[in-house]
């Protein structure tokens, strides 16, 4: 029985491992800090796995655990971003863009508050407002309002970088 749970956990986490990497990339600059964060996320996922009740998709639950881990256990990690945005960025780059655009997007996202980083990360993952609300504990209406404000904040960040 325990081996079945171990196998089920490994299978489902491996299918969704990108979630932990994305969250770590958004919250931690240093590769060593990212690896530490991912390791802590895996531990928290393993510890919490027996309580996963299938009321939401596993990926939604995993986002919640990983984000909470990043926010609580690594809140003291300082982010230092020294990569300037190129002057030709007029809009927030598409996630599918080149490496330079991805760096610019991550820099802009890293300028947001921790909760807003989580919201935009989930949004960029294609989650619905309802799913984002479920992960963050906010109301669906609050998520909608925050996303409008986040977009304006990101646009202002990009504009400041271009000056």
Number of individual domains: 2
- Number of DSSP helical runs: 8
- How large, in whole angstroms, is the Cα Rg? 17 Å
Class computed from helices, strands and strand pairing: mainly alpha
CATH topology of the largest domain: Arc Repressor Mutant, subunit A
Instruction: Show unreliable segments.
Output: 76-97
Indicate the proportion of strand residues. Answer: under 5%
One letter per element, helices H and strands E, the order comes to HHHHHHHH
Q: Percent helix among the residues?
A: 55-70%
Average pLDDT score: 79
Shape: globular
Q: What is the name of the CATH class of the largest domain? A: Mainly Alpha
Describe this structure in words.
Mean pLDDT is 79; it is low at 76-97. Helix 6 crosses helix 8 and helix 7 crosses helix 8 (140-162). This protein starts with a helix and ends with a helix. The protein has helices at 2-15, 17-27, 31-48, 58-73, 99-110, 114-124, 129-136, 140-162. The radius of gyration is 17 Å and the shape is globular. It is 69% helix and 0% strand. The protein contains eight helices and no strands. The chain has two domains: 1-80, RNA polymerase sigma factor, region 2, helix turn helix motif (Rna Polymerase Sigma Factor, Chain: A); 83-163, Arc Repressor Mutant, subunit A (Orthogonal Bundle), CATH 1.10.10. By secondary structure, it is mainly alpha-helical.
